[in-house]
Design goal:
Chain A is of the alpha/beta class. Chain A has a single domain (2-68, 98-106, 135-240), classed as TIM Barrel. Chain A has nine helices and eight strands. In chain A, α5 (148-154) links the parallel β5 (134-138) and β6. The longest helix of chain B has 13 residues, at 25-37. The chains are: A alpha/beta, B alpha+beta. Chains A and B meet through α2 and α3 of A and loops of B.
């Protein structure tokens, strides 16, 4: 398993500052988020070549990119328009590809039949159009993917390049046990996000048993002391691994 | 036998556009006939053209409209600039008609824009840019001065290339470089059958039609087949992905 740091613990830091923090905390890789984080590679005063240069300068590896959600709706009017939404996601995926990635992480839209249908259709369309990427589907409270049953209904219908983004915090927030999801989808897990390190021993044991060798992303809640929190999480995880 | 000379390419390199006569009289007549199929005005009575419509009277897929790009030298000329076999052949030239206003207070547009940028009503998805390499504006009717000619800001493609080396492609709201003096625009006038080939990052605009004729322009936007692999690239050499310009 490869350790990586999410900017979730320091959403206000610009990319350069976040990379410096990750490096100082001992990480060799980071994830980035398209939205909800100032370290997004999409910033008015940053070109893609500048993002690459910043990674090169720090020696860090980009391990993943959380793109905009597949809601099936226009962001500016909330009108249902899957094609429009997919054009946004394709843009984000190609941005990730330009940064050297072969996968993207995304969430679904609202917890409605319409959004579930758009998520299923949209993922299939994206995978058909962009043949060299995997999509990791994340859960979140109140969205089309919330708990194990949602994954069980969706994942078997999708191309094998659609994988599970196992986010411990998002699952626990809805009362779901991340270990149960990992036991059902062990070999279909594309990436793991750990909301906290304490209490994840059984999950890590299971991931080892199923030979999971993907990214283990430390995705902590925002912290007033992000460097200390990141450093502590990395040290705890390395002990467990 | 190439359509473009070394001088043509040098002009395009410096100015970001190039004007050539391309259509045969029969191609012009066929395209005009096609456009008039969708214009509810009297073709023989110019008074009925004033403030008529629609802007897009027939789809770009109409055979006579599509022929102006693919059965003329236009597509081949574009590939002479970008590189042989590099452009996606799926593009069609969309009609963009501007009808006479009957007014006389014409002025050159003060600002132009880059194509492909989001506005709430243009269909471009928010947080994306519709990138392409060469635009082709084909006149199928004469466009005289003050007749809503395609207006370009010569050299602005070089400014854009430099700008995007240090800024996000998404940073130009509505495709407009605000607070930037790009010099005066240039209204492209010319006879029916003429094409203006322009760099996909050339600032341009339309203008008001204070002339008697309908501005009958067809506009195609041509992108490389490998666009998805290079759309975020802003190399030091802005012609890196233009093999034809390096020949």
């Amino acid at each position: 398993m490869k350790l990586s740091l999410s900017p979730s613990l320091c959403p206000k830091l610009r990319l350069g500052a976040f990379l410096a923090l990750a490096k100082e905390a001992g990480f060799a890789a980071v994830e980035l988020c398209r939205t909800e984080s100032e370290s997004s590679p999409v910033h008015p005063e940053t070109s893609v070549r500048m993002v690459r240069d910043q990674f090169k300068a720090t020696g860090l590896r980009l391990s993943g990119f959380n793109i905009r959600p597949l809601t099936g709706r226009k962001a500016d009017s909330d009108e249902r328009n899957l094609g429009y939404n997919l054009r946004q996601l394709e843009w984000d995926i190609h941005l990730g590809r330009a940064l050297g990635l072969k996968s993207a992480n995304l969430r679904g839209g609202a917890r409605t039949g319409e959004a579930r249908s758009d998520l299923r259709s949209g993922v299939q369309q994206l995978l058909r159009r962009i043949p060299d990427i995997n999509l990791n589907l994340g859960s979140a409270p109140g969205t089309a993917l919330r708990e194990l049953a949602d994954y069980q209904a969706l994942i078997p219908c999708l191309d094998p390049r659609a994988r599970v983004l196992l986010h411990t915090g998002a699952l626990e927030a809805t009362g779901e046990d991340p270990l149960r999801v990992a036991q059902v989808f062990g070999r279909r897990i594309g990436v793991v996000h750990l909301h906290q390190v304490q209490g994840c021993e059984a999950l890590l044991r299971h991931l080892r048993q199923v030979d999971y060798c993907g990214e283990l992303v430390v995705a902590l809640a925002p912290s007033a002391e992000p460097l200390a929190a990141a450093r502590q999480a990395r040290a705890d995880l390395e002990r467990l691994l | 036998m190439p359509h473009l000379t070394a001088a043509d390419k040098a002009f395009f390199r410096d100015n970001g556009y190039l004007v050539k006569q391309v259509l045969t009289p029969e191609q012009i007549r066929a395209a005009q006939r096609a456009l008039w199929e969708g214009i509810p005005a009297d073709r023989n009575d110019p008074q009925t053209w004033i403030k008529a419509g629609p802007r897009v009277p027939v789809p770009a897929s109409h055979p006579a409209i599509r022929a102006t790009l693919h059965d003329s030298p236009v597509f081949e000329m574009a590939e002479e600039l970008v590189g042989a076999g590099t452009l996606s052949p799926n593009a069609s030239p969309g009609p963009h008609l501007v009808f006479p206003t009957g007014e006389t207070d014409w002025s050159l547009p003060r600002i132009g824009h880059l194509d492909g940028y989001y506005t709430p009503t243009n269909g471009v998805a928010q947080g994306t840019v519709g990138i392409f390499h060469v635009g082709a504006t084909i006149y199928v009717e004469e466009v005289e001065a003050r007749g809503a000619g395609f207006t370009v800001w010569p050299g602005s493609h070089r400014y854009a290339a430099e700008y995007f080396r240090t800024h996000s492609l998404l940073s130009v709201e509505g495709g407009v470089f605000r607070d930037t003096d790009l010099g005066p625009g240039l209204e492209i006038t010319g006879p029916a059958g003429m094409v203006c080939l322009w760099h996909g990052q050339l600032v341009h605009s339309g203008s008001k039609n204070c002339a008697a004729r309908i501005r009958m322009a067809l506009i195609a936007r041509l992108a490389r087949k490998d666009l998805e692999d290079i759309r975020f690239e802003t190399p030091d050499d802005m012609w890196e992905h233009w093999e034809g310009m390096r020949a």
